[in-house]
Structures are given as structure tokens and as C-alpha cells.
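Weekly structure sync, notes
Attendees: PL (lead), two postdocs, one rotation student
Agenda item 3: pending single-chain targets
PL asked that the sequence for the first pending target be pasted directly into the notes so everyone works from the same version. It is reproduced below exactly as submitted, 251 residues in total.
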Amino acid sequence: MERRRIQAFIIGFLMSLMLAPAPLLALDQKNEVVIAQLKYKGGDFEPYKSSIKRLAYYIVSRTSVNLSKRKKLIKLDDKNLFYYPFLYMTGAYDFKPFSKKDITRLKRYLDYGGTLFIDDAAGRSKSGFDRGVQRLIKRLYPDREFERLDEDHTVFRSFYLLSRIPGRKLISPYLFGINIGDVTPIIYSRNDLGGAFAGDDYGGWENNCVPGGERQREMSFRLGINIVLYSLTVNYKKDQVHIPFILQRRK
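Predicted structure, written out during the meeting:
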């Protein structure tokens, strides 16, 4: 499923080249998913160096996704951006406004099937990073704003059945998203999922998860897995056949 999703994503972008000039990209020969982390100016684009590696380990060990355990730090002007259907953006501080060219390129990335997961690492209800994110969204989608994702959203059942929003610190009980039709190309967490994933150099964890401890960390990994799998499968599980079973499981 994830291979078909990646192929559709790349093919969609390549088809767009017939309508708008852009550099021609070669197809990735490795047939493996690589999580890309957005490198931006200002703030702190990489508060945890190990979080993606730890998440990738859990995805590989628990699912059938052919995922690389390495990550790719990438800028929006990188010609290989469209190799990566999942883009992770995190930070704890405000950041410099994106250039008009970068906004256009990110919008195209999202329009042709890419998923952007934004993770506020500040651990506060009000943060500079959140201000920067809200400013970014207004430029990407002037006529839209973040909506709370309902509990029946596919992201909560793309692999695990989830009803709570964990993370390093419980700032918000909700995930937020920008919805375009029945697809959510941007998902936003205020709870610092990356902080729950991050490990130290000795095989332990870099941060405590507050207030739920190790159970909260486990649920954070489950949500991380769901978000990555959602980016690769979107709404293939949003089928009426699944709904009675899912509702029964949640009782």
C-alpha cells in the first residue's frame, strides 16, 4: 500500500510538470520510505536529533512498511523534495517567515499528495513556534484555519485504534489539521511527540512524559506510527464496513 501511495504522489507531481515548468526528478530506486525533516531558517528546526530514528525503529518492528531508519534533513528548495511523501516539521521557537517561493513549493507539495506533520516541541500552551505555524498556515491557505480532528478521523485508526492525544507533555487533548475535502494534508500536534520519542546516548530516554509516564510514551509511539501510515495510505480504511467493528472495539 505504501509503495502505491508513494508512486501516486510522485506521478502526480510529474504530471504537473506538463502544466508548470519545474526541474525533472528521477524516481527513487530504493523503494523505501524515508522520513524527511524540514530544515528552515530561525528558531530550532531539530530540537531532538534521535526522535525520527527511534520512531522509525518502532514502525519497522511493528508494521510491514519498508521504512529506512535514517532521516533526511531537507529544505523546501531541495530538488528531491517530492521523493518524500511525509514531511516532519518541529521546533520550540518562532522562525523566519518562509519566502514566497518556498510557500509556493510547499503548497504544490501538499496539493499533489504530500503530508506535513507539524509538532510543537515547546511544551507550553502559548509558544513562539505556534505563532510561526499560524502565520505559515495563513499564507498557505488564506481561506482556511486549523480544525480539530474528530475521533473518527482515519489518522486515529490507520494502524492502532486511538482515542487520546499523547506526547511528551499534554498541552492539548486534540490533534488539529487543515482539511481539503476528505484529505488532511497538514496535521498539527501541540504535545511534542518528538520529545517522547527522543533517546539519549545510552539507550534510555531523553525526556520524561508528563503526567502519564511510560504508558504515555507508548501511546505517543502509537500515534506517531498512525500519522506516518496515514501519510502513506490516506483514507483507504475510511470504509463503512470498518465502522461497526471500530465502534465495538472502542467500547
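Discussion points:
- The chain has one domain: 2-250.
- The first strand starts at residue 33 and ends at 38.
Action: rotation student to compare against the earlier draft before next sync.
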